[in-house]
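Obj.: predict assembly geometry.
Materials: sequence records (below).
Method: joint structure prediction, all chains together.
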Amino acid sequence: MVDIATRVHNHNWKIDPIVRSLIDTDFYKLLMCQSIFRNKPDTTVAFSLINRSHSVRLADLIDEGELREQLDHVRGLSLSRGESTWLRGNTFYGKRQMFRPDFMEWFEQMRLPAYHLEKRDGQFELTFEGRWPEVMLWEIPALTVLMELRSRAVLKGMGKFELQILYARAMSRLWEKIERLRRIEGLKIADFGTRRRHGFLWQDWCVQAMQEGLGDAFTGTSNCRIAMKRDIEAIGTNAHELPMVYAALAESDAELAEAPYRVLADWHEEHDGNLRIILPDTYGTEGFLKRAPDWLSKWTGIRIDSGDPATGAEIAIRWWQERGEDPRNKLVIFSDGLDVEKIEELHARFAGRVKVSFGWGTMLTNDFRGLAGDRLAPFSLVCKAISANGRPTVKLSDNPNKAMGPADEVARYKRVFGVGDQAAQEVVV
Amino acid sequence: MVDIATRVHNHNWKIDPIVRSLIDTDFYKLLMCQSIFRNKPDTTVAFSLINRSHSVRLADLIDEGELREQLDHVRGLSLSRGESTWLRGNTFYGKRQMFRPDFMEWFEQMRLPAYHLEKRDGQFELTFEGRWPEVMLWEIPALTVLMELRSRAVLKGMGKFELQILYARAMSRLWEKIERLRRIEGLKIADFGTRRRHGFLWQDWCVQAMQEGLGDAFTGTSNCRIAMKRDIEAIGTNAHELPMVYAALAESDAELAEAPYRVLADWHEEHDGNLRIILPDTYGTEGFLKRAPDWLSKWTGIRIDSGDPATGAEIAIRWWQERGEDPRNKLVIFSDGLDVEKIEELHARFAGRVKVSFGWGTMLTNDFRGLAGDRLAPFSLVCKAISANGRPTVKLSDNPNKAMGPADEVARYKRVFGVGDQAAQEVVV
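Observations (raw structure tokens):
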């Protein structure tokens, strides 16, 4: 059993590097990477760190030298033999050889490309540029390094005893959440908390707590390294970067309008079953579903990742009904801004009407609110594709507070995708 | 930093014996032992374990062989060189050489005498008989062995993870209590929780939590071993066994009526300052104070250990006033059935009227209520002198539920000490 408080107190990045492995990343990054490796290997992209929580002045908290050491350490990582064996030999979503030999050969020799780091206005400008399949693998390590360096910066000032109390409280808090979740009959929930975790050891502990406390209701973790270590399911499908980059590559408005479906057509070719999950919100859920080709309504389910989640699920249910599908056979995965109350509420409202599932992120792996004042409270850090082959990417989302891209391009996308007024939701994490 | 959950999980009595040292005992036992060694060395006494919580069937929970191993281990203990040095060289209550050389020489060669153990009706009958100064030193080890074997019996059935959550919760709970106590201005509080502790490591942790959380408001611990280890004050004065044995030795009713004052006269000769604390409730506080000699009203303070504590303190205040003493110069130590609320309440009522101090026991070192169902809830175990030179001892207390002794003797004591009706208080711990 790891005594987290002691380890954190004694931590030294040389023995406790933040990122220990190339598969200390979300499973869907690897699935998408393989898809990109197959379909768009030569696309050049830029990813950039974006701290939506301006009040958290990362560059004032974190030493630039330490950040560089951690990032350099990540660049030195390569897939270990055991990790390769696990990816090649494991069954994911009931399927063997999810990762094809050509992809695995490439992945085994892959090293993460260079990064570009500057300080500006109390924030770090951290960008990555290069071939899409490589650059995109920076997203999660970049986030976890920044998140954990911030935690460590705050923890550094605390005594051994304070640390022990801190973790005792965080453990008790999570356990109380789990005890509430345990009472939800038919619950299905997975850990999606890698990117916003307090730290690696803490996420690993949270996953064990979920395993122990929820049994079969806990369906797995998005983190491959932890899935491997704890012998549980690796969970995930696809994310916004695919439609964002496909859209940026479009040569005309007509191609742009088709781009999100093009992504899913490529995916359709590659995957079936529970991997066929629609992420509809990149350019507005309502319009996306209205114009969707019929084969999409046959997909297994939908992931609701922005906007009011109940509204999103109702839209999906109506859409399936209109397309002659029985929503009770469809899966709705909620993955945005969840905590126990929201999970209880959504489960109560949708269980029985659809198959409900939850991807629980920040409030699972980083709920330290109030435990060191607000100095350890989670904050909203993302690492996104900002351009592809030199053209800016755009995200509209179902929440205008999550939109990104240059104003003129945002206006163009809104026109092309027919997005009107949207209800703004506060982005906490 | 000790990871208690891991240690408990791996515990093995040979490396984690329950009693590690002869000074893993309350400081007042050593003070009383020296007083007995000087004044009544040849008295023969019997001590017996009494479990007031009949529903906790110790002999069903605890293996007799394990109990014998632990008790035999205690019998093998002798004062270590470092412990002897600490007792001889330390300053207690501002006084050097509290323990006289002749007592220390005797203590260094002392081994605990034989025990007698039987099982009856799901309980252990555990008795000790012999010379008073030796037998009396069994009290605390006997209690801590039984308390911790009961904890271990419950913990044995729990997984590593469950244990971690258990201790995380108990730690969070104590820390919340400490945070409440921190808000009481002028608080003075000590650990009196050795005898009812969940376990040794846990008490040690609780003491560190009090140190860290309360600073100077935490005045010390009654546990000598922990006081030595953590370099803090050892706290305590005297207890009921002195008047109980002195009373049993009385040859007449007149001598009996004088016995409690005789105890304090011997104590008066030996100690001054903060060690002159009256424990008035053995045969009823009210009568004891009414008939007390004037020199007793000059003593530093009073310890309230049974009955309603506010009533006890009001009686003491009135008594000092009647004897022309200013209560504001007097110390009242509350030491019975305390938890945070009671401490807040008593402090609010008496601070400023007297000097207030608290000896916090069971709810400091053994509050596991509800954390493993009620299987770890504290219970009321005592180890008392039941006879002296072949005569039964009697205790009346300010709470008839704490009274002990044969019925005819209780009646005689009530008559001699003029004790009438008493309000019964539930004895939880």
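Conclusions so far: Chain B is about 45% helix and 15% strand.
To do: check interface contacts against the pulldown list.
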